[in-house]
Q: What sequence folds into this?
């Protein structure tokens, strides 16, 4: 049964449309202008949540989202390295959107250090 005429909430993503969209997004992301998947989505006149919706509906397209993210990560690193974007903005983008982090302290396995409580002997305690 089809959706009622005039229904604007009907599903629009067939596998073919989703695959075409993801390939178009992957092609766009190869350009140096895209450091963040949200920029790709914006130029495709959608929001970045569309990518997650598509891969949840069609998991076989997950590899395309991974390629888009990888392309954006490479672009961000290259553009930061070349000085095409502000270094601080590049670092924030790499950390926030591409999983980069500062080097961790291998002695604590990223767990907080809780120094032992040291009791100071008070003269009145003697």
A:
């Amino acid at each position: 049964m089809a959706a009622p005429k005039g229904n604007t909430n009907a599903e629009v993503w067939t596998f073919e449309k989703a695959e075409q969209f993801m390939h178009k997004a992957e092609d766009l992301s190869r350009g140096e202008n895209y450091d963040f998947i949200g920029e790709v989505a914006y130029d495709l006149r959608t929001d970045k949540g569309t990518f997650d919706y598509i891969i949840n509906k069609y998991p076989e397209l997950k590899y395309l989202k991974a390629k888009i993210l990888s392309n954006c990560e490479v672009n961000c690193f290259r553009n930061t390295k070349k000085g095409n974007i502000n270094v601080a903005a590049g670092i924030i983008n790499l950390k926030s959107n591409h999983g980069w982090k500062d080097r961790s302290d291998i002695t604590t396995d990223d767990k907080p250090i809780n120094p032992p409580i040291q009791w100071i002997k008070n003269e009145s305690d003697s």
Observations:
- The chain has a mean pLDDT of 85.
- The chain has five helices and no strands.
- The first helix runs from residue 15 to 29.
